[in-house]
Design brief:
Layout: H1 29-37, H2 48-61, H3 64-81, H4 90-104, H5 112-118, H6 120-123, H7 129-134, H8 137-141, H9 146-150, H10 165-168
Helix pairs in contact: 1-2, 2-4, 3-4
Length: 169
Amino acid sequence: MSAPARPPAVGPDPEASDPEGLDPERLDDEGLLAAFETAAFAAGSFHHRHHVRVAWAYLERRDVLDVLARFGAGLRALAASAGKPGLYHETITWAFVLLVNERRAGAGTEDWEAFARRNPDLLAWKPSVLEQRYYREDTLWSGKRPRAIAGWASGSRKGRASRDRRVIT
């Protein structure tokens, strides 16, 4: 009698470091996207690096406008499933998707690990590349600027030109 097959990549993995759900680090790109689209990650197990990887994986398969819609919907569902529906931030979501898209341009057939090594600034969260190069903190986080949370706000840093600047302003 043969041993039972290993559980599929998109289901709770008893060997994962997250005993309450899926470990995003252990999933291949297809499994990661499937778990993301069903909000299958336990609260606290899906971090900024995983957000960037999902954006990258989507952009490998879809055009940027479709990714903006899918990624935003997925993040809202994930935040709601974690009991934090107000956590979603439209400007940060769109800006990171656009930056990942820009950084992928001209990179050839680069896998996720190569992309991550080449773009460590995209993987840092506090402070993020957005706060360091594109936005003043008060534009992104001030209660007086809810537009940045609920919708797109263009970059607010002046005099910080870079090859990426043209992407988000």
